[in-house]
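Hi team,

Filling in the usual template for the complex we talked about on Friday. All components are listed, including any nucleic acid strands or ligand strings, so the model treats them as one assembly.

SUBMITTER: L.P.
PURPOSE: interface mapping
COMPONENTS: two
RESIDUES: 409
SEQUENCES:
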Amino acid sequence: MKKLVLPLLLLCASGLTLGALALLYNLPLDTRDRSPAQPIPFSHKLHAGDYQIDCRFCHRHAESGPVAGIPDVALCRSCHEHIATEKATIVQLKGYWERAEPIPWLRLHQLPDHVYFTHVMHLRAQIDCRYCHGEVRTMVQMRRVASLKMGWCLNCHRDNQASIDCWTCHI
Amino acid sequence: MTTEAKDIRWGMVIDLDRCTGCGACVTACQAENNIALTDQQGFAQGRNLQWLRIERYWEGEFPHVRARFLPMLCQHCDDAPCEPVCPVYASYHTAEGLNGQVYNRCVGTRYCANNCPYAVRVFNFTDPSWPEPLEQQLSPDITVRSRGVMEKCSFCIQRIRRGKEEAKLENRGLRDGEVQPACAQTCPPGAISFGNLDDPNSRVARMARSPRRFRLFEDLGTEPSVIYLKGGGHEHPG
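RESULT (copied from the run log):
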């Protein structure tokens, strides 16, 4: 009986280690919230889907520079001065305009400082927004679909013969 | 003139007979590249963060001495001593002949700086800081390097990137002189030129063929991409 104790203990220990490793392997590394509630329940499904407003009407700088840009309150107001004015959410929206405050949208896509990304070069390569941002037209609440990890960028760059030199993205 | 050459090999020509040692390039470099300011103590410890410095030396015997200046920056060697010693490949050679430094890959062993004969690599011994309001002029195009990371001149890679992007968006090649590092743009007497050495018609390639050319520590075999011109002006016969 005594002879069996040590091997049994060893077996338990290695089993536990293996279990812990398997758990660690399966845990998501990225624990950031991919779809937090925004200060105003802005729906892409309604605006970009049902009413077919072009992405670039609101995200104006995607075609010309590195950042796509979030529209300012004045752009929302240009429509909502007349549309759905009595709805609670629009009254809330007007409040921001009257207080001359920007809407504190929560940012979902944010690369670390050591990564250089630019929208315009990707749009030039005819890559649609949905390759990277998913089916935005069906999202009631904005959700991040891409991992934004380096491997994600590199896979597509390899497939499209784009540059994979470190200094393309890390400058 | 559009660059005909397919390949790019970036190079710089510095005409020492034009250099007045004013230091404008040093300031421009500091401002362009998010380089942290070093305090007095840092300087005393030899920890000043400068990608570009002016070396001053004296020529001649008293009373006929004159001060000479030499802007010293990363020489972007073709056979760079800093590259093979990096254990994590943070220091690497790009296809365009630049010495790349990937800050986020760097783990701060400082082998590269110790192996650099030109002493142009600088190490962040502390987290960077800028006195107000200088932190507001930080460039968003490039990283702010943190403590424990080696950095050095990149020939203003962000400007090279931008030049290439603009050219691509207009479906054309890069023009000679279109991309200029901050030091070259600032230099009041125009002592610094930058361009593609692989294009025989580019300004740098033409100047690099000058008989006044020399490279620093040529005998080490590092094959620098920075070419200096000196002598032959009317004030320095021979």
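MY TAKE: Chain A has a mean pLDDT of 90. The two ends of chain A are 65 Å apart (CA to CA).

Thanks, L.
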